UniProtKB/TrEMBL annotation, chain B:
Keywords: ATP-binding, Cell membrane, Membrane, Nucleotide-binding, Translocase, Transport
Record InterPro entries: AAA+_ATPase (IPR003593), ABC_transporter-like_ATP-bd (IPR003439), ABC_transporter-like_CS (IPR017871), ABC_transpr_PhnC (IPR012693), MetN_ABC_transporter-like (IPR050086)
Secretion signal, residue range per the UniProt entry: none
PROSITE patterns xref list: ABC_TRANSPORTER_1, ABC_TRANSPORTER_2
Region annotation (Disordered) ranges: 256-277
Protein name: Phosphonate ABC transporter ATP-binding protein
CDD domains, alphabetized: ABC_PhnC_transporter
Location of the ABC transporter domain: 2-249
GO function terms (MF aspect): ATP binding
Amino acid sequence: MLGWFAFLFWWFQITPIRLWNGLSGLGTIVVLMIPPSPGALWLDILKGIAESVAMAFLGTFIAAVIAVPLGFLGAGNVVVNTLAHFSIRRVFDGFRGVDQLIWALAYVRAVGLGPLAGVLAIATADIAVLAKLYAEAIETAERKQAEGIDAVGGNKLLRTRFGLLPQVLPIMIAQALYFLESNTRSASVLGIVGAGGIGLAIAERIRIRAWDEVAFIIILMLVTVAIIDQISARIRRKLIGGRDTLAPR
Amino acid sequence: MLELRGLTRRFGAVTAVNDVSLTIPDGQMVGVIGRSGAGKSTLLRMVNRLTEPSAGQVLYGGRDITALRGAELRRWRTDCAMIFQQFNLVQRLDVLTNVLVGRLNHRPGVMGTVTSLLKMFTATERAMALQALDRFDLAEVALQRADTLSGGQQQRVAICRALLQQPRLMLADEPIASLDPRNAKTVMDALRQVNREDGITVLTNLHHLNTARQYCDRIVAMQAGRVMFDGTPAELTSARVQEIYGVTEDEFEEQAQEAVNPAARQSQTAKPGLALA
């Protein structure tokens, strides 16, 4: 174990001197950040943040909508065929293995620089994960309500619509809101590879060492993310409520 | 006329229902009694094919129900409504929509399906639903969510839903096992009303001998998957019960009660409203 660590330290050439220099470099940056300043182009910064939030919202929304039918397809209690169900789940897993940033790089090549690439990257990366989460939520849904629809003579579609959807929709929306929160954070990085949003502004300011403006953007981002977290937490509480429909009866 | 011929269901090595043959004329109210595990529930669920028989036949008006597939099977399920012990309503939807669910298989074609998916029901259908609710004093809760109702109310909503199917038969699987005595009475009264006023055949599983005696025209007693008694309430004397089950009537009631109670207690902790109602 110790040898393994020693090897890694040697491999990455981690020495106390480099660590010390790095820390002092970081210290210099922090000093340069104080006081944070909006700079001359503060309007662009605001626009960039708004763009990041909009990208996160649109990307998450697209993913959340497309994931609903996929989630039902991936749920064992809807698609009873084990082979079909198993292969759909493995496809979800495959997509999940590719990070958002990789998708962003690919989409920048495919559709060009700008927020469209970012939106598509967010959507593509999240569809599979949301579909998997949705499928799991559907599988834990109470069977009795769906059986009630069977007994009425409802077909498979109606059984899903009335017997399952009302149970899982609030959970689906809550999960999509979680993703919106996390995407607001990650949307700021996508700009660095040219996929739109505030990231580009950060990258440019780091290049010209305008650390005070970087600090300003970071603070603004933290506030934005906090606000979105608050709003979404409130909606989620309302949706799920104190009453858990998935509790066994 | 509903006819069961040699109906059998095996779960692995266990035979839940063993060669049951019954003939039930239209309009009769039949109570099926027996201990937990006697096969009552499986028997009922084979009639609307929520459980597939291993052997034997279900016939209705001479038609072989056991051979039905797809849309025909769903048609039969609409004709033969089912009431469940746990009501099986859509908890998050309002009462009116839950009742309208009974119409789902009466709405043909692509348009019918699309409007159903969007919960767009016609004024006539809504009026039907409200009328049914009003009949069982539930009109004022029509717009409440199903999970805000007491167990007794939910079961009566389930009966309204069943009525909107315009069924010829109603199966009730332990309809009052999760209810307190007062609610149990309103639900049993509702079932009898459906039987007497609408002429719908009612086939219900019950664990109380007295309830069965009080409400049913005919009692079928099951033991270990077999029918041990089939006759009028008057014929099911205490001596007969002891002969079939080897215990006195009081002991039988106690055992039956124990068998259903865990479920009842569970549903009470999940819905505090039930205890209060």
